[in-house]
Amino acid sequence: MSIAVVLVSGGLDSAVTLAVAMRDGHDCLAVTFDYGQRHRVELECANRVVASAGVMEHRTVAIDASALAGSALTGGGSVPHGRSKSSIGEGIPDTYVPARNLVFLSLVLAIAETAGARSLYIGANAVDYSGYPDCRGEFLESFERTANLATKMGVEGDVFFVHAPLLDLSKADIIRLGRDLGVDFSLTSSCYDPSSAGAPCGTCDACVIRAAGFAAAGVECQ
Prior knowledge:
CATH architecture: 3-Layer(aba) Sandwich
CATH superfamily: HUPs
Strand order of the largest sheet: 3-2-1-4-5
Number of domains: 1
Structural class: alpha/beta
Order of helices and strands: EHEHEHEHHEHH
Radius of gyration: 17 Å
Distance between the termini: 33 Å
Number of helices: 7
Largest sheet: 5 strands, parallel
Strand content: 5-15%
Number of strands: 5
């Protein structure tokens, strides 16, 4: 069985992505990044998600928070609240973390090459999160080309593949897919500005999108 390295943040999308990778027949090495994010409850959620899924290995990788500063998620301002769903995705939001997916995928690529894994899975979504430049298909395609140019495995013919199975799905479609794959959404957190106890705020962009997705999917919100 082939190994896949899967980015698991503890959010809804990454939990579904992990389930897809396992459905695809991979042994999964889950990677979670601790980059000083204010919504640190997602680290606990990532632990719960991977424990429930039964992955072969789970690594939490710490990144110096100063390297990704300047975002509302890393102490560089306030998380937006109360925006309408129609206004979410207009422009690049304050919750954009500088080059986050580029940094994450680069580190995941190094882990994959060390582990002899050719498949990288990321829960990027360009429908509900269209304001993030590093969630676009063009970026992921470009990174896949770079991965095969910049690595020993790639140069020697072991081609890397970057899988973003949720890229073109609506949040409702992602929730339906996760339900069909047996994902326990109660283990996940999407909130950008949770309480100190980890309770979701209900009004940040991520909470609004999550609630609307469950409603559109006809699934009880978790």
